[in-house]
Amino acid sequence: MPTGILALRQDALRTAAAGLSARRPPDRPRPARATDAVVGAHGADYGCRVERILVIGASGHAEIVLDSVEKEGRYQVAGLVDDYRAPGDELLGYRVLGPHRDIPRLMAEEGVIGGIVGIGDNWTRRCIWNDVRRAAPDFRFVLVVHPSAQLARGTSIGAGSLIMVGGILNAGARMGDNCVISTNSSLDHDSLMDDHASLSGKVATGGNVHIGSGTAIMLDVTIAHGVSIGEHTVVGAGSLVLHDLPAYCVAYGTPARVIRRRAPGDSYL
After folding, report:
1. What is the residue extent of each domain of the chain?
2. What is the pTM of this model?
3. C-alpha to C-alpha distance for 181 and 146, rounded to whole angstroms
4. Count of CB atoms within 10 A of residue 161's CB?
5. Of 3.20.20.80, 3.20.20.190, 3.30.750.24, 2.160.10.10, which CATH number belongs to 144-254?
6. Share of the chain above pLDDT 90, in %
7. Whether the Cβ atoms of residue 219 and residue 204 lie closer than 8 Å to each other
8. DSSP letters of 249-268?
9. Is 213 a residue whose pLDDT tops 70?
10. Is 198 helix (H, G, I), strand (E, B) or coil?
């Protein structure tokens, strides 16, 4: 390219860059705490009003929920509600405001529109969900999806559900209400999780899998294509599930087999 033309192109690029720089708004400082301002998915304060929510629970699972809410940037956490922590206790800088029976009062006083149950145990999460629905019919259960999660076309996610870091929902997969997909787990194409079910970390399912209500799939489980697992069943860590499993049982192994029966609400952690 002739030297004169190259010089003109370089001048034009410098002029365009200067114009863009002049039009770019100044960076806004990141707030010190997520409760003080709206924090976007990449840490930017967008300066707009967003809806305020409560996180129900104040333990390790709630920490993951709080981080996902902050990263997603769609809601502002007004505080926590927990039946076993004293009001004023803090988790990641967020205050406990009271037990879950105080939610109707907190909705009025804190301008809260709803929230999410940040409790890992499926049965407890289900019980709290039902209690809140009865006590506060206007409470809106929000879904929280970490920005690193991948959602394919034709997927659906129920109210109050959570997808953590690296979670995957493949084409046509469906999550019911109050479900959890944990870190780096995937629900493959056309699979279904019924309400209050959960996948722990590094779970992989084949396509057309059905996971029953309240069922817990523990760490690093693999579920073959087309398998159906009944409600309130627990599949132990590291298992390989090649065939259907009934409801109300504990199963584990390679391949997984039924070890014993269980009742809804039995501890599994």
Report:
1. 51-141, 144-254
2. 0.81
3. 11
4. 26
5. 2.160.10.10
6. 80
7. no
8. EEEEETTEEEEEE--TT---
9. yes
10. strand
